[in-house]
Amino acid sequence: MRFERLRIQGLRCLADVSIELGQGIHVFVGPNGAGKTSVLEATYLLSHGRSFRSGAREALVQRGRPAVSVYAELHGEGDHVHRLGLGRAGARWEARLDGTDVALGQLVQACAVVCFEPGSHALIAGAAEERRRFLDWGVFHVEHGFLGVWRRYQRALKQRNALLRTGSPGPDELYAPWERELGEAAAIIDAFRQRYLDQLGPQIAAAAAALLPELGPVTLRYRRGWTDAASLVEVLAQQRGRDLARGHTTAGAHRADWSLAFEQAPLREHLSRGQEKLTALGCLLAQAELHAQRRGEWPVVCLDDLASELDLAHQEAVVERLAAVGAQVLMTGTEMPRPLQARPRRMFHVEQGQIRPLL
């Protein structure tokens, strides 16, 4: 999978830029604040329907512009070129695929991008929500039934939470249908997630052994969001009183989490910030590797300011691995990273929201 053309309008400081891309490694260099990261952000938007940067969605739109839009031509499976479009002028994203209006999920299904950036350590050290997003993005791209059942679960969760917020216990007939729906959907989601993590585990172990050999073997742990001793339907019925007091559902697939434990660092609190970053990078590369095995093509890999995030030895290891598999790589930096100086690559200079090819 690779982008052949990317056009970005009104995204942060990028007013209107068009970039021709090819195979292999692409490097965007320029001063801080020039718009380099926004190029990676544009591709990530197409693949995830959200930014990897924190802050309000309104911050995506360039000041003084009415809307933001990203258009891409993507070379995908079977040498087919898809035309992807994503834009937002109001509160909701609008998506187009090959000239047709589609749901955002359908657009995201056609495009796979993984990104390592300065905030990626949150995958290890941050809240469970980050890890669920990582997990569910991977499941979404290999399990075609996941999106439908996930939507079922979210609808039922919204309805049960609305009942809980009334503060009234109400008859069992009000809650039971939504709790059954939650239980049925959660069981399917849980099976999808466990199967995916079983497949991802060996990939993570291999990546961790290459990036963090000093920490020893790694173990992947998964918590499904409710006790293993009972079905979710039973748990929801038992906890209804407590959930009423809190005003929301406290058990279920939306509370799932996973973690990594190294033999020499059994708790995530034992990792340094540098080790957290390397662990997160290993997880992202493992996910990309598994995607390639299951889908027959590597996702696009974005590396934001790699030189400031990793030491030289790890930079070289990452670049060598991605070059060996032929993945399309989009990388940023204030200058050309040293591991790329003797390698084939395309180079772009970014300054004040303008992008100019150099090589």
Description:
It is a single chain. The protein has 11 helices and 14 strands. The chain is an alpha/beta fold and 359 residues long. α6 (172-211) crosses α7. The chain is globular. The model has no long low-confidence stretch (mean pLDDT 92).
Short synopsis of the structure:
The RecF protein is involved in DNA metabolism; it is required for DNA replication and normal SOS inducibility. RecF binds preferentially to single-stranded, linear DNA. It also seems to bind ATP. The chain has about 350 residues and is α/β, with parallel strands linked by helices.
Label this structure with key terms.
single chain; 359 residues; alpha/beta; six-stranded antiparallel sheet; six-stranded mixed sheet; 11 helices; 43% helix
Using DSSP, what is the number of strands?
Answer: 14
Tell me the helix content: 40-55%
Largest sheet report: 6 strands, antiparallel
Q: Uncertain regions: pLDDT < 50 for 5+ in a row?
A: none
The gross shape turns out to be globular
The quaternary state of the protein chains shown equals single chain
Q: Indicate the radius of gyration in whole angstroms.
A: 22 Å
Strand content: 15-25%
- N-to-C SSE series? EEEHEEEEHEHHHHEHHEHEHHEEE
Mean pLDDT: 92
Give the class from helix and strand content and strand pairing: alpha/beta
The largest sheet has its strands arranged as 2-1-4-5-6-7
Distance between the termini: 22 Å
